[in-house]
Amino acid sequence: MSDDSRYARNALTGAFIVFLAAAAFSAKAVLVKLAYRYHTDALTVLTLRMLFALPFFIAMAVWGERSATARVSRRDFALIAVLGLTGFYLSAYLDFLGLEYVSAGLERLILFLYPTFVVLLSAFFMGRRITRRDLFALALCYAGAALAFFHEARLEGSNVGLGAGLIAFCTLAYAVYLVAGAEVIKRTGPVRFTAYVMIVSSAAVLAHYAVERGIVPPNVSTEVVHITLFMAVAATVFPVFLMSEGLRRIGASRAAIISSVGPVITIFLAYAVLGEQVSAMQIAGTALIIAGVLAVSGKAE
After folding, report:
1. What pLDDT sits at residue 177?
2. Which residue has the higher pLDDT, 252 or 212?
3. Per-residue pLDDT at 33
4. CB under 8 Å to 85, separation ≥6 — which residues?
5. Residue of 235, 188, 215, 219 whose CA lies nearest to 53
6. 167 contact partners, CB below 8 Å, separation of at least 6
């Protein structure tokens, strides 16, 4: 096999892996909404998800340490702890709370705005210049988000504003995590960084549950256990590993383009599994957000 053929095959495999990761991540909101149908709540579902995922991330951390050439410094461990609390614990909790009020489709669209938050945070705190292209992309994104929001507000009423606000703060927390964690990832490597951040966030979720409800097993149906176990493996651990491998094969630019199918997959799954309505306004909003995110990320080549 020639080098060109080998490169093409590797790129095709990488693209397929990233697509699978994006599809798996996209199923999370649908699974959360499905669990809510069995009379449970955000903290319970999040706790079960992280409890089931935690052993995988511990194994991931052990494997990362064995293959690393340098130990993680105390300073980086402290930064990872802060990022785990804000970037994943806080972000995930706000996300799951927001899903009590908004559809899976709207949640995914708001979350997909995170690159615009990264641009704004980088401008305010790191002196990054906002270009005309950035402004145009931001306008596209927020126009699309407004269309999707008004579509849902018209159907669901006033609680949509509360849910959308919670998820917007979730997205902001995740953007802060990305901006602040960029340098730490360079020093620790993506595998150890992700594993330790997820361990910290899992511990925080379990502590939150213990303080609020005591050290007792969640009183949930068998269906909720099955849904959250599937969510932990298929929509949390599985896509994390897939995305890491996909990024290694094809790079961040191509991965970002392929990942833009995420909101479309979520909307389709929400329609097929949950019976959520899809309108022309929502489709138009989705298209604007995807176009804006690709432009603001500089990935639309």
Report:
1. 81
2. 212
3. 96
4. 200, 201, 204
5. 235
6. 94, 95, 98, 99, 102, 106, 107, 110, 111
The residue assigned the tokens 């950035």 is: 134
- E strands, 28-138, are none
Compute, in degrees rounded to 10, the torsion defined by CA atoms 26, 27, 29, 32: -160
DSSP 275: -
User: Distance between CA atoms of 32 and 42, rounded to whole angstroms?
Assistant: 8
27: closest CA among 105, 94, 113?
A: 105
Burial 9-30 (b: 16+ CB within 10 A, else e): eeeeebbebbbbbbbbbbbbbb
Give 207's contacts (C-beta < 8 A, 6+ positions apart).
Answer: none
Q: Tokens 């927020």 appear where?
A: 142
The structural domains of the chain, with segments of one domain joined by +, span 12-296
CA 26 to chain CA centroid, Å, is: 8
Taking the C-alpha atoms of residue 123 and residue 117, their distance in angstroms, rounded to an integer, is 10
Residues 6+ away with beta carbon under 8 Å from 235: 24, 25, 27, 28, 31
Q: Residues 14-44: pLDDT tens digits?
A: 888 888 988 898 899 999 999 999 999 999 9
Q: Residue 17 is encoded by which pair of tokens?
A: 């892996």
Tell me if 275 sits within 8 A of 57, measured CB to CB: no
Closest CA to 263 of 112, 102, 98, 95: 112
Q: Is the pLDDT of residue 118 over 70?
A: yes
Of 26, 28, 10, nearest to 246 by C-alpha is 10
- The model's confidence at residue 227, banded by pLDDT at 50, 70 and 90, is very high
CB atoms within 10 A of CB 241: 15
Average pLDDT, the chain: 86
DSSP string, 124-145: HHH-PPPPHHHHHHHHHHHHHH
From residue 281, give the alpha-carbon distance in Å to each of 16, 106, 145. 30, 12, 10
DSSP-derived letter for residue 217 is -
